[in-house]
Structures are given as structure tokens and as C-alpha cells.
């Protein structure tokens, strides 16, 4: 990572409009036509990536390690929600983000998210090798 001292405080944003297919009802994890909390995580991840993209070395990326999510309120179809993510910590290759989602001024969700910086090619090679060695032949 470049300019590590500047990472702390870096902010990213992401926006989405809730579509019918984004609801808990549509993806089968509930019976309410409200945005699924899994989309909250996706939106916050997008904001986190945007916050630090300029600080990554060529060939470097991040992956989600942990998220603690508090869904404060719900939103329905057609609502535009926006996420903010602020890098609040750096420990080795681990980055911590404070994330929030809003519908206008209404606070919808809050999360603490940890992402790990990885070198893309070696990470994918290691993941592929692990998948290959853990596969069982079909009988």
C-alpha cells in the first residue's frame, strides 16, 4: 500500500436504488419487500473499496475479513440509499472501516468492517490450489 499514513481518514461513498430483486422477499430470506441486509454489506464494501483504491499498489486488492452490522431501520423498493466508509485503522495488512448507510438524513445501518490487503495473483493462485486439493473425486 502506498502512502499508508494517508489511509487513516480516507473516505469512500457508494449509492444504490433498491430494486424489487434486492428485497428479502425476492431472495428468499424473509417475507417482507424491504432491502435485504446482505445488500447493506455489499454497499458498504463498495464504499470501503472506493475509500482506499488510490492507495493500493498495482496488483494489490482487498477482501472482506469481518463485518459487524447493525440494521437500524428498513427501506423499501425505489429508495435511494447511500453508504459512507471511513478508514479508521491499519494494522499490518488489515484495514478497519466505520461504515454507515443513510436514506436522506435517516440513519439506516452502521457497521465495523475489516478488509485485508492481498496481492491479487498470489491470493487467487493460493485459493485455486486450496480448492483443487480439497476437492473430492466424484464416485
From TrEMBL:
Q: Which residues form the signal peptide?
A: none
Q: What is this protein called?
A: Unannotated protein
The segment(s) forming the Fluoroacetyl-CoA-specific thioesterase-like domain are 26-120
Q: Per its UniProt record, what InterPro entries does this chain match?
A: FlK (IPR025540), FlK-like_dom (IPR054485), HotDog_dom_sf (IPR029069)
The record's Gene3D superfamilies line, in alphabetical order, gives: Hotdog Thioesterase
Lineage start: unclassified sequences, metagenomes, ecological metagenomes
Amino acid at each position: 500500500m502506498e502512502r499508508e499514513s494517508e489511509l487513516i481518514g480516507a473516505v469512500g461513498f457508494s449509492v444504490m436504488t433498491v430494486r424489487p430483486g434486492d428485497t428479502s422477499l425476492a431472495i428468499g430470506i424473509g417475507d417482507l419487500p424491504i432491502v435485504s441486509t446482505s445488500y447493506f454489506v455489499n454497499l458498504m464494501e463498495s464504499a470501503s473499496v472506493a475509500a482506499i483504491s488510490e492507495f493500493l499498489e498495482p496488483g494489490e486488492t482487498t477482501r472482506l475479513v469481518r463485518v459487524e452490522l447493525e440494521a437500524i431501520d428498513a427501506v423499501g423498493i425505489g429508495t435511494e440509499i447511500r453508504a459512507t466508509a471511513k478508514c479508521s485503522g491499519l494494522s499490518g495488512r488489515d484495514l478497519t472501516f466505520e461504515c454507515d448507510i443513510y436514506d436522506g438524513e435517516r440513519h439506516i445501518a452502521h457497521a465495523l468492517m475489516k478488509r485485508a490487503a492481498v496481492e491479487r495473483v498470489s491470493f487467487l493462485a493460493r485459493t485455486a490450489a486450496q480448492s483443487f486439493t480439497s476437492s473430492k473425486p466424484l464416485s
